[in-house]
């Protein structure tokens, strides 16, 4: 079982910056993918950015050039650095840890953290 604890988030003005942190604990594979998803009111959860343990990175087109994801494997942590924030970035952001056990992918989720961008 993997537990994820998120921190950061809050209220920021459009054009500002914010960082999110997520620390994983428990039994986990070193070969994994960690990252962030978000869900705005009334919408489906969507991928924001992921970073695999092999360095492969995936950024949503809507945040490319403004957000970046990085990880500290020694701390089992993943971070999301957000800049040039827009009101449409307002959402609950969820940390995700995914690992493959015998061909089956297991996803673990944080509790979610609110990011609100005001105009």
Key traits:
single chain, 119 residues, mainly beta, seven-stranded mixed β-sheet, four-stranded antiparallel β-sheet, 0% helix
Could you provide a short overview of the structure?
The protein has 119 residues and is an all-beta fold. Helices cover 0% and strands 61% of the residues.
**pLDDT average, as an integer?**
96
The biggest sheet, with number of strands, parallel, antiparallel or mixed sense and barrel status, is: 7 strands, mixed
Distance between the termini: 40 Å
Query: What fraction of the residues are assigned to beta strands by DSSP?
Result: over 45%
Write the H/E string, N to C: EEEEEEEEEEE
Number of DSSP-assigned strands: 11
Our count of helices gives: 0
Radius of gyration: 14 Å
Q: What structural class is derived from the secondary structure elements?
A: mainly beta
Contiguous runs where pLDDT drops below 50 for at least 5 residues: none
Shape: elongated
Helix coverage percent of residues? Answer: under 10%
Q: Could you give the topology of this structure?
A:
Elements: E1 2-8, E2 10-13, E3 18-26, E4 33-39, E5 46-52, E6 57-59, E7 67-72, E8 77-82, E9 91-101, E10 104-109, E11 113-118
Parallel strand pairs: 2-11
Antiparallel strand pairs: 1-3, 3-8, 4-5, 4-9, 5-6, 7-8, 9-10, 9-11
